[in-house]
Design brief:
The chain has nine helices and no strands. The protein has 222 residues and is mainly α.
């Protein structure tokens, strides 16, 4: 049984909250060694970035706050810790309200758009085989991302990653997309496999171009 994407994000934030409590004395005052504060800062920043992305306003605010810390003044460490806790609390609330779903999707879509642009550039310059591999591999990663959105376990019961065809079938069964889209996914994965195994004569530039366009539309609508 897998933990949902949101569940993982909240757990990491909660783990940072729990560590922050260890920085306090019995009266609730921050009295921990500087090294412990630095450990918390690392945990907090990692949780913020994982939940909202490297370039989010939350991550930028967290980095700005950390850059303010002054070498030996405990009051600065306390203020920074409290500010980071406030940032994470805001993120946790946003997750609970469903506001971060669109943010996560935008971040994900931007990353995969970059890979598809790279694939298109390679194709345009005569490298259809490399283009097929990059587009297909990034698309398989997108399918695993969809698993987290639709409650599909991307691994087998013994903990090994499922093959892409199995994930395709499981996502269709879960209602992530319909059977007509499943056929397109099967075709794209087949072209990727042909390219990865050196069967370059089984597909053409046109097929790879259609594959890239199709994957781009699929990601935008799923």
């Amino acid at each position: 049984m897998t933990i949902s994407l949101d569940g993982n994000l909240v757990k990491q934030i909660d783990d940072a909250f729990k560590f922050a409590e260890t920085l306090k004395d019995d009266e609730g005052m921050y009295k921990a060694p500087r090294a412990s504060f630095e450990t918390f800062f690392t945990k907090a920043l990692a949780a913020v970035i994982r939940a909202t992305g490297e370039s989010s306003v939350y991550a930028e605010e967290a980095r700005y706050t950390l850059n303010l810390r002054n070498a030996e003044r405990r009051t600065d460490l306390t203020r920074i810790a409290e500010t980071l806790i406030g940032i994470m609390d805001t993120i946790k609330t946003a997750i609970a309200e469903g506001f971060l779903d669109s943010v996560s999707d935008v971040i994900h879509g931007t990353v995969f758009a970059d890979f598809l642009e790279m694939a298109q550039h390679l194709l345009d310059n005569g490298y259809k085989d490399a283009a097929a591999v990059i587009a297909g591999s990034s698309f398989e990663s997108h399918l695993r991302y969809l698993c987290s959105k639709h409650g599909v376990d991307p691994d087998t019961p013994d903990g090994k990653p499922k093959k892409a065809d199995r994930i395709n079938a499981d996502l269709t069964k879960a209602g992530a997309y319909d059977k007509s889209q499943q056929k397109h996914v099967t075709a794209w994965l087949g072209t990727r496999n042909d390219a990865a195994h050196g069967d370059y004569g089984k597909y053409t530039d046109v097929i790879v171009g259609n594959m890239i366009s199709g994957i781009r539309h699929f990601i935008a609508t799923s």
